Amino acid sequence: MNKIIITLSLLLGLLAPRGTSAQLSEKKILTLAAAEKIAAAAEIEANKRKATVVIVVVDDGGYPLIIKRLDDTQVASVKVGIGKARTAAIFRRPSRDFEEQIKNGRVASLVLPGATPLQGGLPLIVDGKTIGAIGVSGNTPQEDEDIAKAGVAALESVSKAPQSPVTQLPAKQVNGAYAKGMNLVKAQNYKVDASHREAPGVVEVHTKDTDIIYMLEGTATLVTGGKLVDGKTIEPEEIRGRDILGGESREIAKGDVIVIPNGTPHWFKELKGQVNYYVVKVRSVN
Questions:
Q1: Is the pTM of this model over 0.90?
Q2: Does 179-283 carry CATH code 2.60.120.10?
């Protein structure tokens, strides 16, 4: 891995124009876990006020991460809440600013692309950079903004908290991941996937990743080893095929742990009902 990083650094140096240095800046992003805390804080504030509102948290591009429509909130507030949050994110200022501009006679603000000129959207800022926004809609303009401010305050407490090397995933997030099958944690040399199957898969070979599988639910026939048939590289270090010649067939069920070394063909050939399992993928650094 170190050799790869050094080689890439040298290549970037050769490609850069003389007299300049090619650098990539670090960018902070709004994680789903942080967005959930922000939305939860706003919801607590809304409940204190007995407010019926929609709470929306978006990333820095204005795309929703969390949408909460509290009980008995009007449907129309959903799109308005998204609009307020998107405005605060992409223009990097409170959505109230555009409403004030219109009140003061600058009607051109009405036609700004992507802008919803209504109070209730606030940017989420860390170290001077906008990483997302929160929008609230459903009550009076000032109350919407006050509820959004509770979410902003939650971000400030999260960003100032000491950073821990330990990752904890809430059960709700983990359980939701199994509905579709998705990545839970991704680091430099490992990742953790929540995997869900309702039908047999294709033959897989990971040239650098060792799979450690822990079965949570269901029973399957797993074929490992042997010779891959019609293998095709679908992306770096990932090969797929239609069959295995030879190989070892085994039945795996809830509670089983299976370790599949990198370079080993493997195939969920048959399933008995749906199957859920964790996969920890450990990447070889050689």
A1: no
A2: yes
